[in-house]
Amino acid sequence: MSYCYEYPHPAVTTDVVAFTVIRDDLQVLLIRRARPPYRGAWALPGGFINPDETLEECVRRELEEETGIDDVFMEQLHTFSAPDRDPRERVITTAYYALVPPNRQEIRGASDAAEARWFALEGLPPLAFDHAHIVRTARARLVEKLEDPATAFRLVLDVFTLSDLQRVHEAILGVAIDKRNFRKKILGQGLIEETGAKRQCGAHRPAMLHRVIE
């Protein structure tokens, strides 16, 4: 059965701000658009929802199709509904943010993305649509979420050094953290344990590896 509505229906999309830490920098995953509008411009991965999808199914599909990344932590961020945010038509998007650990950073451009690439947050190119605003909103949310220890744990490997964890905090906050105070705080939470193994870190003493207590 079909219906005729008095009011026009806006289109619905999802977008995702995928974060990772590379070389001590907080980085964001962008795709170069292969189609108009903004053909050739950099943008967040995302796209239109299919009639049989939930929002989360849509955003995970688009992320995998456009960048090759799947099965990562993702959480809904905010709905953006400015009437002029898309030149094609009235488009409302629900944005998510994702946390990508070091072993999942390999990417590929596909679908309607000509290219996919990680960019340092402080050096992003001009972005299509209102995606710069979405990125700023996601960064602010990530800083808030850092109060939850699980946030940083999702950006390191399953086994990690305390220095690995500290670098993630510093990358998100954008400031240096006192090493002694950081370690005292992290160990005092009782959430991680030593694995008994160590990692050689250049000319320095081997660093103890830790893991999250299940």
Radius of gyration: 20 Å
Distance between the termini: 51 Å
Major sheet attributes? 7 strands, mixed
Give the DSSP E fraction (strand runs of 2 or more residues): 25-35%
- Unreliable residue stretches: none
Q: Please write the string of helix (H) and strand (E) elements.
A: EEEEHEEEHHHHEE
- Overall helicity: 25-40%
CATH evolutionary superfamily of the largest domain: Nucleoside Triphosphate Pyrophosphohydrolase
Alpha-beta content class: alpha+beta
How many distinct helices? 5
CATH topology type of the largest domain: Nucleoside Triphosphate Pyrophosphohydrolase
| The CATH C-level class name of the largest domain | Alpha Beta
Shape: elongated
The name of the CATH architecture of the largest domain is Alpha-Beta Complex
Overall average residue pLDDT: 94
Attribute tags:
single chain; 214 residues; alpha+beta; Nucleoside Triphosphate Pyrophosphohydrolase; Arc Repressor Mutant, subunit A; 7-stranded mixed β-sheet; two-stranded antiparallel ribbon; 5 helices
